[in-house]
Design brief:
143 residues; alpha/beta; Rossmann fold; 4-stranded parallel beta sheet; two-stranded antiparallel sheet; 17% strand
Length: 143
């Protein structure tokens, strides 16, 4: 069973339970599964060929996990890139790997100057994840 299949199984049985929780946001298994599916569709729309490479240059956050699982769901190879690398180092890696899509946060966007048609910005994810960093979510079991 793949990680995405496992997530979908958990979402079916425990969809309202919290999968990810930090001081800023809580995401249920159901929300996570929907976000992964939506992102995998977006990746497939950008490049329908299975097995192509998707790079991600972003700091770790909930959306990072969504991107990793979505790449798997879309049958893509994932190339994680460090936001601590230089533009030159990243360019060398990207020129060798030739990803079809690059997922970036603000930091990654600044480090990778390429055509915007190749980028998906993590800032676009709130509509996929169904939770928003600026919104407070009530904790389960609280009135």
């Amino acid at each position: 069973m793949s990680p995405v299949q496992y997530l979908n199984s958990i979402a079916e049985n425990f969809g309202e339970h919290i999968a990810l929780d930090d001081s800023e946001v809580a995401v249920s298994y159901g929300e996570l599964a929907v976000a992964v599916q939506a992102m995998s569709v977006a990746l497939a729309n950008m490049d329908p060929n299975p097995g192509t490479t998707v790079a991600i240059c972003a700091d770790y956050c909930h959306e990072y996990l969504v991107a990793v699982l979505a790449a798997q769901a879309a049958n893509k190879k994932l190339l994680p890139l460090s936001t601590h690398a230089t533009t030159e180092q990243l360019a060398e890696i990207l020129n060798a790997a030739l990803p079809s899509t690059i997922i970036v946060d603000e930091r990654g966007h600044a480090l990778i100057p390429c055509d915007e048609d190749f980028k998906i910005h993590i800032s676009q994810f709130p509509g996929l994840v169904l939770t928003y960093r600026d919104a407070e979510m009530p904790c389960p079991n609280t009135p």
